[in-house]
Amino acid sequence: MPLIVLARLALSLASLIVLGMGGYLLWSWYDGYWLADRFGQTHHIREAWRLWLGLGMLAWSLCGRWIVPVLVARPDTDPTRPERSAGQEITSPTGSNLYVEMHGPQDAPTVILTHGWGLDSSIWFYLRRALSQRFRVIVWDLPGLGRSKPATGAIDLSHFARDLQTILSLAGDRPAVLVGHSIGGMTIQTLIRDHPQVMARQVAGIVLVNTTYTNPLETMIFSPLARALRWPLLEPMFRLTIWLQPLAWLSAWQSYLSGAAHLANRLGFARHVTRSQLEQTTLLATRNPPAVQARGNLAMFRWEADGALQAITVPALILTGDADIVTEPRASQTLAQATPGGQLETIAQANHMGFLERPDLYNAQISAFCELHLREPAVPPYASKSAASL
């Protein structure tokens, strides 16, 4: 999500400036200055305002994360949590070790959830809980994020698609529904483009959630500006992040502690976001390695769906938020028009993280789609008559 990354960079710099100014004020208070009175005696002067202002800046730099969500997000009625259950690691043909969790009845039809970039599979808290009452739900971490470990050079969409094909094999001989948010939706499209044979026997339907069909810079808000900044700013910035990961990580954590990172991630939500939703999104984006996230963003800049959309031969549900600024609704409209039989649904007052912010609306659409396309086939009348005659 380049837009959020740029906001985090700007606000991280501001957060470091506040921290630096706080440190300088505390040092200047301690150092003070000497002043001679009219009798020639010198006095060591320490100005109290420097102490209190410096302490305030330092406190904000280290504890702002407790204050910012209260100011910019709603109280929770159903908090989300980055919880994990008993998972397993499987090795993909790409060489990556993939962390996988399975929820719900073992013998139920399968739904596979692929998360967005910079996050991990725990972000599916609401949807996983809703679907696992009826379906076998498989969630997994993309390589380099969460608990999945990438092979060397495996941070790109083609590798992710091969990894998803490996996850799909866990569904056995029954077709599954694939659900993908943001880069997760791009991964599904890449799987269809690179491995079209899976559509015939392994996929019952796909759900593309707040995603795009091309380089995300082309379909985000202020797209002309984003494209203009790609080569002079974004590409060098991401490459510098890869080379200087330890410093980038320290800066990310300081931004998280100050609440500056929460302000940046707030851009991915509309007005319904709650404090736990903002906290979880920010925490995941902070603790995932900056170099991995930078490589993924560079990979997205070089990605196109190409002929994947026309190759979709299964039902497709395309969900978008009307307030999405990271992948604008026009991207989903193009997806729906280019996909044979694509069904577009626009969720009101939802931004890029709408599936987390408005789970009731997104979950209802996805659950209904899965119920329709994963239900058991009815027994033909002639079969029941034949069985009765035996």
From TrEMBL:
InterPro entries in UniProt: AB_hydrolase_1, AB_hydrolase_fold, AB_hydrolase_sf, Epox_hydrolase-like
User: Might you report a single GO cellular component term?
Assistant: membrane
Keyword Hydrolase listed: yes
Where would I find the AB hydrolase-1 domain in this sequence?
Answer: 109-359
- Span-the-membrane segments of this chain are 6-27, 48-68
A GO MF annotation of the entry reads: hydrolase activity
Arranged from A to Z, the UniProt key words for this protein are: Hydrolase, Membrane, Transmembrane, Transmembrane helix
UniProt-recorded name of the protein: Alpha/beta hydrolase
